[in-house]
Design goal:
It contains 8 helices and 6 strands. With 232 residues, it is mainly alpha-helical.
């Protein structure tokens, strides 16, 4: 049963959202193709990053918790992670946007970007010798810069609020993967490559990493949805 740990985490993360996608009030299933396109665009550089860091030994996987299928150094479950987790996140954003008016959060766009820039620049400079910390800071800085200043995205505040709402799920999924409720972690981290600050067993970098990935998935989903999808 141990070998099914990671795949079961993926399954239970996505199954409720997938079934709910067919609800007549939601009909998110209309956008499966658009989601697949947008998530693939986002997944590509993050998977390359994952492969690179795995080869460098920044992190590694305990294959006792996986099915044993390895592609380019990554377990099959890790590849699925970059589609299934974003699916649940984008679905949640879609539903909150559909049924609730959270646009008020967008009044904080400038504050969120400004404070994030200061924090990420300071941490990146102080800990430039720690690969996970540095790359996470740089990727998130570039993401926020492109979305806010180039793409002129007006929904960063709303997306940030949604990400905060998703935190219980984040702690559940990443907590299991980093060993909160199992004998040893599925994903192990080189202590010399990150800050060493953990939220329970989860490196704080994981939350920042996830934030940038979440924002990019929302951006491309909204972009392709506005261009190619049927309207309400």
């Amino acid at each position: 049963m141990q070998q099914y740990t990671y795949i079961l985490v993926i399954f239970f993360t996505i199954i409720i959202c997938f079934i709910a996608s067919f609800d007549k009030r939601i009909r998110f299933n209309r956008f499966f193709g658009i989601f697949l396109l947008s998530s693939t665009i986002v997944a590509a550089p993050f998977i390359i990053w994952d492969i690179w860091f795995t080869k460098m030994g920044v992190w590694w996987f305990d294959t006792r918790y996986t099915l044993g299928i390895v592609i380019a150094g990554l377990p099959l479950e890790e590849w699925l992670f970059f589609y299934c987790i974003p699916f649940s996140c984008v679905f949640t954003y879609f539903c909150l946007d559909k049924f609730f008016n959270l646009s008020w959060a967008n009044t904080f766009n400038n504050i969120i970007v400004f404070l994030s820039f200061i924090l990420l620049v300071v941490v990146g400079l102080l800990y430039h010798d720690r690969n996970y910390t540095l790359v996470t800071c740089v990727v998130t800085l570039v993401t926020l810069f492109c979305l806010h200043f180039i793409a002129k995205s007006e929904w960063i505040g709303q997306a940030s609020l949604t990400y905060f709402i998703l935190m219980p799920g984040f702690f559940a999924v990443n907590g299991i993967l980093t060993g909160s409720v199992i004998e040893s972690p599925v994903v192990n981290y080189n202590p010399h490559e990150f800050l060493g600050i953990r939220m329970f067993t989860i490196p704080v970098e994981d939350a920042v990493y996830g934030y940038s990935q979440f924002l990019l998935n929302i951006y491309f989903f909204k972009l392709f949805k506005s261009r190619f999808s049927p309207q309400k």
